[in-house]
Amino acid sequence: MLKINNLHVKLEEEDKQILKGLSLEVPAGQVHAIMGPNGSGKSTLSYVLSGRDGYEITEGEATLDGESLLDMEPEERAAAGLFLAFQYPVEIPGVGNMTFLRTAVNAQRKARGEEELSSAEFLKQIREKARNLDIDAEMLKRPVNVGFSGGEKKRNEILQMAMLAPRMCIMDETDSGLDVDAMRLVADGVNALRGPDRSFLVITHYQRLLNHIQPDVVHIMSNGRIVKSGGPDLALQIEDEGYGDLLAEAG
Amino acid sequence: MTQTPDLDVREGVDRETVETVQNMGSYKYGWDTEIEMDYAPKGLNEDIVRLISQKNEEPEWMTEWRLEAFRRWQTMSEPKWAMLNYPVIDYQDQYYYARPKSMEIKPKSLDEVDPKLLATYEKLGIPLKEQMILAGVEGADAAPAEGRKVAVDAVFDSVSVGTTFKDELAKAGVIFCSISEAIREHPELVKKYLGSVVPQSDNFFATLNSAVFSDGSFVYVPPGVRCPMELSTYFRINAENTGQFERTLIIADKGSYVSYLEGCTAPQRDTNQLHAAVVEIVVLEDAEVKYSTVQNWFPGDENGKGGIYNFVTKRADCREARAKVMWTQVETGSAITWKYPSCILRGDESQGEFYSIAIANNWQQADTGTKMVHLGKNTRSRIVSKGISAGQAQNTYRGLVSMHPRATNSRNYTQCDSLLIGDKCGAHTVPYIEVKNTSSRVEHEATTSKVDDDQLFYCRSRGMDEEEAVALVVNGFCRDVLQALPMEFAMEAQSLVAISLEGSVG
Ligand SMILES: Nc1ncnc2c1ncn2[C@@H]1O[C@H](COP(=O)(O)OP(=O)(O)O)[C@@H](O)[C@H]1O
Ligand SMILES: [Mg+2]
């Protein structure tokens, strides 16, 4: 599904290299986790994959189902099935959450040459998915992320993910700032979406999310690179021992 | 979990906006109608003023009123205080009267109107048949299928083509007709109120209008009557080199209510055209008037060529106690906009509101705002202005809030937000505040922001293209004002916001 090969990325405005030869492959149907200390470049990776401005790719490539992602506009990547749940979801004053989602859903359908979702069908779907994430009608009406608590913002990202039904889901620290109940809701939301045609790249700081979302592979990222990959045990090891030894051993 | 119908409709509206952006070219009203016209000779003098009066079959007092204004105008000069930059206007190089030949003998009803004229309005989407308007229009499939009637007065260049639902309105006692007809048929009302809100000598453009106005709409709502439908006037400039000078007079008698809509378009031409209108509203005791405008005159092309010069004087006089007026405007068109719909809050406890969206793209210049003049005790006013600038445009909010010594315990709240798209445009806020008593309070909040790259990226990462993203963010910015508009206008306004910002990013 997602293949990243020797990716080098620097900031456009500054002479600062952030990703330094990152390689990663997430096959269809698998859940991969990326863990790593703050500042190792995890968010940068997620932004570069989804097409944010401000970065320069100096070497390497990234493909989704064999198609080069890096030449596409952000909306083309979305239509191709890529989704990023933001670490810091953006507020859009005055734009109803529901309007936003409906515009997004139909934009993607249009880009793929599909019929628009009727409003009845859209309402049915969003109500059901919102209920599962414990998002009430009030929150659907409120402007996108404005005045949302940290947990509400994160659940809202997962609602968007559920409605857009992407094939490649990247989640950037969706668990930070969530209490135990909210984390369970998010994890249930993600698990409900798991399937043979859908893959996940779950960026997280803590092992606890991975108790709820069982990863197939865990990668440790440091200083712009994947320094170690392994099974779910690797996350447990980090939880117990911290990054210190592991990074020393790798570096 | 229940969904309010209102929300569902608005959902549909926004979706339509997005479609509109994708499906439309730029200014979609830029075509013209080929029709034989009668023109008055070019230029302006007393003979032309007399000719206009004669064409409208006006009584002597009206001719004199016009001449008085014309003589006054000759002593006046164009105001220069606005932040507007345009070449000198040669007032002798214009036509002041243009009428379709077929209108020479006044059609008695719409059935007799030249089919070409009717087709023009049909193409513009203006219903001149007396039909129900479905509040939901196409595309908004979740809309309640509840029929609504809107009466229309259609003004084509210098003349009113026809007015719909006149009979049904007459049954309720409401007079809705062209101003030229009102001058002939209801002289006592016209004499009493014309010029009573905007005097002949008010300002250069209003005085010019007083001399040469050719047509416009007239509304009288009798005491205690709630007008049974929305009233609207649709102005269309078609003829080349012809100014449009319409005059609207609305009188809401004691305890009455009326909601009035105004729309306007013009063909795309590379010369500038002059438009100088006057709107006067008289609101008596306990009456309420809502006046909504979607102004979409041709704004000029992306190089700043052509477009309408729009100099408009609009004023409402809340003449008696508890009178209420609400102006809502969406200004997306015109090369130059000079316009300050105002409220004179004369009656005690009277209220004035002004909601405005002004968009200036490419080389457009807008200097617009309002005046809230508090004369009566316990008067209230509220101003919400959203200015959006893109391209090389300049957008100025200019507003006056004045609390007179007698206007004790009065309040004003002003919120004035500017949004910039790109870095070659400008936004300016010029508030004038005068408080001449100690018990009144004026609150003013102003913000200026840029369309945020993070917001655009967030939208795009969800699948919207850049123009959809901008339209969505800008519509969000304007939401408070869009919600003040009647439903049909809100839809039109949303798509206009999107269309007028085309090409502003990327
Ligand atoms: N726009 C930016 N400007 C300056 N520094 C940046 C920018 N984006 C990322 N960085 C820097 O790049 C490094 C990686 O950041 P980030 O990708 O956010 O890491 P993580 O998500 O792993 O904590 C950090 O040192 C961060 O300060
Ligand atoms: Mg991060």
From TrEMBL, chain A:
Coiled coil: none annotated. SUPFAM superfamilies: P-loop containing nucleoside triphosphate hydrolases. Transmembrane segments: none annotated. Residues 2-248 form the ABC transporter domain. InterPro entries: AAA+_ATPase, ABC_transporter-like_ATP-bd, ABC_transporter-like_CS, FeS-cluster_ATPase_SufC, P-loop_NTPase. Pfam families: ABC_tran (PF00005). The keyword Nucleotide-binding applies. Keywords: ATP-binding, Nucleotide-binding. Belongs to the ABC transporter superfamily. Ycf16 family. NCBIfam families: sufC. This is Fe-S cluster assembly ATPase SufC. It comes from Paracoccus maritimus.
UniProtKB/TrEMBL annotation, chain B:
Pfam families: SUFBD_core, SufBD_N. Residues 235-477 form the SUF system FeS cluster assembly SufBD core domain. It comes from the Bacteria. Residues 170-226 form the SUF system FeS cluster assembly SufBD N-terminal domain. Belongs to the iron-sulfur cluster assembly SufBD family. This is Fe-S cluster assembly protein SufB.
